[in-house]
Amino acid sequence: RMSRKILVLPGDGIGPEITREAVKVLEACQERGLDVTVDEALVGGAAYDAHGEPLPETTLAKAKASDAILLGAVGGPKWDKIEDLAKRPEKGLLGLRKHLGLFGNLRPAILYPQLAEASSLKPEVVSGLDIMIVRELTGGIYFGQPRGIEERNGQRVGFNTYIYSEAEIERIGRVAFEMARKRNKKLCSVDKANVLEVTILWREIMERLAPEYPDVELSHMYVDNAAMQLVRAPKQFDVIVTGNMFGDILSDAAAMLTGSIGMLPSASLNESGQGMYEPCHGSAPDIAGQNLANPLATILSVAMMLRYSLDEPELAERIEGAVGKVLDDGLRTADIAYPGTRRVSTSEMGDAVLAAF
Amino acid sequence: RMSRKILVLPGDGIGPEITREAVKVLEACQERGLDVTVDEALVGGAAYDAHGEPLPETTLAKAKASDAILLGAVGGPKWDKIEDLAKRPEKGLLGLRKHLGLFGNLRPAILYPQLAEASSLKPEVVSGLDIMIVRELTGGIYFGQPRGIEERNGQRVGFNTYIYSEAEIERIGRVAFEMARKRNKKLCSVDKANVLEVTILWREIMERLAPEYPDVELSHMYVDNAAMQLVRAPKQFDVIVTGNMFGDILSDAAAMLTGSIGMLPSASLNESGQGMYEPCHGSAPDIAGQNLANPLATILSVAMMLRYSLDEPELAERIEGAVGKVLDDGLRTADIAYPGTRRVSTSEMGDAVLAAF
Ligand SMILES: CC(C)[C@H](C(=O)O)[C@@H](O)C(=O)O
Ligand SMILES: CC(C)[C@H](C(=O)O)[C@@H](O)C(=O)O
């Protein structure tokens, strides 16, 4: 078969240094027979600085032509003053999601037993935590029209539209039911159906899908309660499915429960299995360029890429095994270090994973 | 001066039994010279069952004529099947907020030292926690138009509108700045200004107010980061101000950090100081009618009422002192009990607070 194309988008802040380590791991996979070509392009603030656009045409064209994308992170205070929302680094990311139709965002929140102490929660509350959040990524209030700021009756109003169609809900619902089927067969759909009409439709469509997945137990929870339950007893969840905005909030809260957001990868998939893979953490401008950042979430994003877009589950498992090994060996970047472990830099961590690979 | 009017709305689930204990405390205040008349009315599912409406005209009229309202809780599975959102118990609550203009929702998240063990977070992360969340309560996506479910291009879509005007943002901003001024002078405004236009306006107005409150330090945080930071290091916050939907989610998460949501009161105020007071927890239908519920949040809501609507800070402090005393004495309802404490019922807890008053 033809060699598949991977596009690397380092982005901003710590993006370049963490993707560098992940690319080393990709190259090690090539040495073990993975037939891929790796290209690179600009996105986010880096693209804005070079071309005045967070998502230049050339980057978008390369992204469309690739089988999978590895993204570092976008954004930072340097670009916060850009007045035009369309030029902000975030629009590079949102544009990629939208243009590539990457509606299915998978965000695992897993507590690594080696890192149990890093959590701000009591060990008994989080030990063994393994949740998968399925977030709709190309609709909802992120993209709804009309939107804007305008004058009405002599004063300015800001407005956005939270909107979902049946088809959009159904397709993310199917991703979530399938995911639950492969896991512990429990799916919790999160909405605010006691207040918002859009989520009444959401709940109705989830209910309509349920009979097609009789092996999966579907439940519903209001978003405020879900935020509480994640704090109180997160292990009650297996798979959570929700819209773009609620998913943004809940997946970050869930990731932080593990205390090691620097460890968590994510995948964003479209209908043909093309995917974008990125760490859950952001661009961390405060530590950028200092060889301090944790590259493991990005390396684990490569593992997700191998599993979901490149159909190479064995290589994915090898990467995950290598990450487990370096953690067992006590190697830690600053964000997950504690007394008795060995502090390493970004590149040392990448090298250690390679050595264990 | 004229005796002031308090309206009690027990509502659904555990509402009647917890408000009963709070009314006992109100009566004890009357014996100590508080000049109020206390009336009662139906709201929520209870009102729907009796009159087919979650907010009957008579209830609304009484509410408008009162100086302060004490609400138990509304809702429960019994009414979840009502198709028409306008008839659901929640609409009783939302209608009261809207018709009375109760835009300023104050939700404290305080960790009682006597209950430190109840939190799912590590003691060092939450000990001494004292956050005040100021949530806008009569605008945003809860009330925005247009809203509904309708057919477009052959399929149904659900939609809601997230909208704020300058004036709405300014008035909740002022409540928050004033609150910060009375506390530790730190205000964090939570938005999603990297994605949503409505919150770009929100951020702009908060910035515009800041010079009027030079003693208050204003910061901004994206809502996803705020959800993370609440889990990671909640003590970094003093006052948080945010819109209706984000406030719903974050205040519940913050309340749960304390592990004793059964302890947390809330106030909802309008421009003339009229207020509605209610516990942060819900109607807990699973334990309703069993004399098991914790009445302390409702009793503490009476204290908030005395402070914010009735200008009786000494009585408010007496109630808070009495609650502290029963906790010191080791009395606990089921939700906050642990080995070595004395399990008491709803009414026993109410009686104990009265005895300590
Ligand atoms: C950077 C931002 C636009 C983005 C989002 O809100 O989706 C980020 O928070 C995420 O969750 O990937
Ligand atoms: C019952 C519901 C409508 C309400 C809300 O969403 O505001 C509740 O969750 C609250 O926070 O008071």
UniProtKB/TrEMBL annotation, chains A, B:
<dbReference type="GO" id="GO:0005829">
    <property type="term" value="C:cytosol"/>
</dbReference>
<protein>
    <recommendedName>
        <fullName>3-isopropylmalate dehydrogenase</fullName>
        <ecNumber>1.1.1.85</ecNumber>
    </recommendedName>
</protein>
<comment type="function">
    <text>Catalyzes the oxidation of 3-carboxy-2-hydroxy-4-methylpentanoate (3-isopropylmalate) to 3-carboxy-4-methyl-2-oxopentanoate. The product decarboxylates to 4-methyl-2 oxopentanoate.</text>
</comment>
<dbReference type="Pfam" id="PF00180">
    <property type="entry name" value="Iso_dh"/>
</dbReference>
<dbReference type="InterPro" id="IPR024084">
    <property type="entry name" value="IsoPropMal-DH-like_dom"/>
</dbReference>
<feature type="site" description="Important for catalysis">
    <location>
        <position position="142"/>
    </location>
</feature>
<dbReference type="GO" id="GO:0003862">
    <property type="term" value="F:3-isopropylmalate dehydrogenase activity"/>
</dbReference>
<dbReference type="InterPro" id="IPR004429">
    <property type="entry name" value="Isopropylmalate_DH"/>
</dbReference>
<feature type="site" description="Important for catalysis">
    <location>
        <position position="192"/>
    </location>
</feature>
<keyword id="KW-0963">Cytoplasm</keyword>
<dbReference type="GO" id="GO:0009098">
    <property type="term" value="P:L-leucine biosynthetic process"/>
</dbReference>
<keyword id="KW-0560">Oxidoreductase</keyword>
<comment type="similarity">
    <text>Belongs to the isocitrate and isopropylmalate dehydrogenases family. LeuB type 1 subfamily.</text>
</comment>
<dbReference type="GO" id="GO:0051287">
    <property type="term" value="F:NAD binding"/>
</dbReference>
<keyword id="KW-0460">Magnesium</keyword>
<feature type="binding site">
    <location>
        <position position="224"/>
    </location>
    <ligand>
        <name>Mg(2+)</name>
    </ligand>
</feature>
<keyword id="KW-0432">Leucine biosynthesis</keyword>
<feature type="binding site">
    <location>
        <position position="107"/>
    </location>
    <ligand>
        <name>substrate</name>
    </ligand>
</feature>
<dbReference type="InterPro" id="IPR019818">
    <property type="entry name" value="IsoCit/isopropylmalate_DH_CS"/>
</dbReference>
<keyword id="KW-0520">NAD</keyword>
<keyword id="KW-0479">Metal-binding</keyword>
<keyword id="KW-0028">Amino-acid biosynthesis</keyword>
<comment type="pathway">
    <text>Amino-acid biosynthesis; L-leucine biosynthesis; L-leucine from 3-methyl-2-oxobutanoate: step 3/4.</text>
</comment>
<dbReference type="GO" id="GO:0000287">
    <property type="term" value="F:magnesium ion binding"/>
</dbReference>
<comment type="subunit">
    <text>Homodimer.</text>
</comment>
<feature type="binding site">
    <location>
        <position position="248"/>
    </location>
    <ligand>
        <name>Mg(2+)</name>
    </ligand>
</feature>
<feature type="binding site">
    <location>
        <position position="135"/>
    </location>
    <ligand>
        <name>substrate</name>
    </ligand>
</feature>
<feature type="binding site">
    <location>
        <begin position="282"/>
        <end position="294"/>
    </location>
    <ligand>
        <name>NAD(+)</name>
    </ligand>
</feature>
<feature type="binding site">
    <location>
        <position position="97"/>
    </location>
    <ligand>
        <name>substrate</name>
    </ligand>
</feature>
<feature type="binding site">
    <location>
        <position position="224"/>
    </location>
    <ligand>
        <name>substrate</name>
    </ligand>
</feature>
<keyword id="KW-0100">Branched-chain amino acid biosynthesis</keyword>
<feature type="binding site">
    <location>
        <position position="252"/>
    </location>
    <ligand>
        <name>Mg(2+)</name>
    </ligand>
</feature>
<feature type="domain" description="Isopropylmalate dehydrogenase-like">
    <location>
        <begin position="5"/>
        <end position="353"/>
    </location>
</feature>
<keyword id="KW-0464">Manganese</keyword>
